[in-house]
Amino acid sequence: MTQSNWSVPETEVVQQIRDRLDGDRTDVLATIVDVEGNAYRRPGAKMLLDEGGSGVGSITAGCLEDELLAVGDRVRETGETELVTYDLMNDDDEDVWGLGVGCNGVIEVLLEPLTETYRPAVEAFFGGRDVAVVTVLDGGERFERGDRVYYYPDEGTLESPDGSEATGWPVDALSGPAAELAARGKAGTVSLPDGADELTVFVDGLAAPDELVVFGTGHDVRPVTELASKNDFRVTVVGFRGAVDLDERFPDADRTVTTSPATVGDDLDLDERTYAVVMTHNFVDDQLTVESLLDAGVPYVGVMGPRERFDRMLDAFEDDGRRFGEETLSSVYTPVGLDLGGGSPFQIAHSIVAEVLAVSNERTPRHLKRREGPIHERVDVESDADAPAQ
Amino acid sequence: MTQSNWSVPETEVVQQIRDRLDGDRTDVLATIVDVEGNAYRRPGAKMLLDEGGSGVGSITAGCLEDELLAVGDRVRETGETELVTYDLMNDDDEDVWGLGVGCNGVIEVLLEPLTETYRPAVEAFFGGRDVAVVTVLDGGERFERGDRVYYYPDEGTLESPDGSEATGWPVDALSGPAAELAARGKAGTVSLPDGADELTVFVDGLAAPDELVVFGTGHDVRPVTELASKNDFRVTVVGFRGAVDLDERFPDADRTVTTSPATVGDDLDLDERTYAVVMTHNFVDDQLTVESLLDAGVPYVGVMGPRERFDRMLDAFEDDGRRFGEETLSSVYTPVGLDLGGGSPFQIAHSIVAEVLAVSNERTPRHLKRREGPIHERVDVESDADAPAQ
After folding, report:
1. Using a CB-CB distance cutoff of 8 angstroms, which residues of chain B are in contact with residue A331?
2. Smallest Cβ distance to A283: which of B9, B97, B232?
3. Which pTM does this prediction carry?
């Protein structure tokens, strides 16, 4: 068993799915479609089951993976998509708690041979486009388990895996609770009326990963790129004035860009999904970069340096006749990072990426023990299925 | 230049110092001894300067390193310890801010040939014992720059590098401000009266790294060990019931231990420096482990799982006639981790290690921009040197 592959980032699992689709092996994809009770992972968690008993990704914390590998072998052989329910609860109270978190609850898993019908998902994901994979779990008369259609929240369209308009599907129904899940990048099972029949589908909203753009090429940049990448951000490193060897120096970056501080706004696609950390260690470069970021209205601008330095930057903006409103400035985080203490370059990077995670997930950083309510945000959808959680 | 070595964890720099001492190369150690103004690293930050222009560790964010490598070559050749001041401030306001944070301020750096006089520092560090390296910067009549003595806060003793009692040093003076720095693991320059003379020494308090003990061997453990190790914790993984191949499965751990939940308290040195994360995913194993940790009074017990699970654990303790006071229970963090959102194994690990960092550094986790006062905690010592900061 390839132990080291269990705790790979989510992006890495999708990357592996793409690689497998490009290869000619038959792999099996397992996806959690429903969870009751407390479990380590939520609906939408994925695992690739390889021939030979190894896997990529994780669905539980090791409670079920061995069993899944066995079912995976069967699915690979028969080519039939299966829906398997693991009931880790039982009436013996002692046992339930003996199994502990992660090995608790009822978990429903869809296992399918990985085929071309999944390609639109990975293409959207890496193309930066949100998509929901809608897969039939129980099809009534008209559909079979594993039948699939794609919902694109940006245009509200429904497409078949081959890219054609999906016809014959209960389109109206999909504009309801399923679309809501899809638009929020959430996952869950939904029952849809289909004439007199009823269709149970799994809606797997795949939010394209957010982008973290790091401005700067100093020695403090690399641990930021490493941690951001492992935390599922698409990472871009931006260097100025003919910075060289960036690809080599920042192997964790998805791309590197060499440009000028004055043309940042034009050369980069800055939008509501861009999280930026400005750490060029040059005041004027930082100033021009921050100006472009504020103009673009990105949700997070982390600026390395003490608060006074940013105050000076505001003065400099004002000298140039630029004023930014309170709301625009609320996206600025300076000094950058969470207050975790620790002053090594890696510790500073850890606190920066922790802050970006919290902001991108709209969390107030604090101890989970101080938070009220469940850890996983609940999504209530109108359906007779259990409210899926993520 | 070995780019990848700049952002290594602090522990790794000390490890490299040990390796160099064991080898027969002549390396030069650079240490920041004083900082005025804002700088990226604080007094005590270290960098090893290799022959051939590469380095390990970082002192600034790339502003001075090239210059330091050049001075390092000179020190290697002459064998003379040097104290170099870099004044990155000047009267031209524009320029000061143009240089930006990290390339700001006045930085004083001690460069010395790495010799056996430094060995007690690495031995204490890896032996889990706090120590302060006291090095003469300006020796007056009786001492030379680079002369050195070790102060051990646990016993209040002063030793020469060869382990003998240090004689002839102004011992009384060292029990004052220097000892205060040393006891707190802080670093700074201190002036000591030496008869009619005056001695300027650099006190480099090396706090032995805290230990993170992870109980559990599931697939969610590895990213915790990786991140904790890179954040300068000594990492121990504890497995139960003949867990095998732990060293192989957790390469980032400093050690792995296989024991039984009932003997955790006896088999591990649990003390006020032990930070523990309990994630065996087995209720009874977790319960026995938590009991031992609470009995030992460790400062942090992170328990994976929902709050209700821990409430059940408290019920189970009560059934066994065990009650823990409020203060003891305040060390329990469950659900474990900071509230950063994100549910991948790596994201969960990131939030756990962020919490351990905050607790071990006695910080309230929140955005640095919401924190009042300076990022670096100031240490005021009675001396005519500037108050060193870290």
Report:
1. none
2. B97
3. 0.77
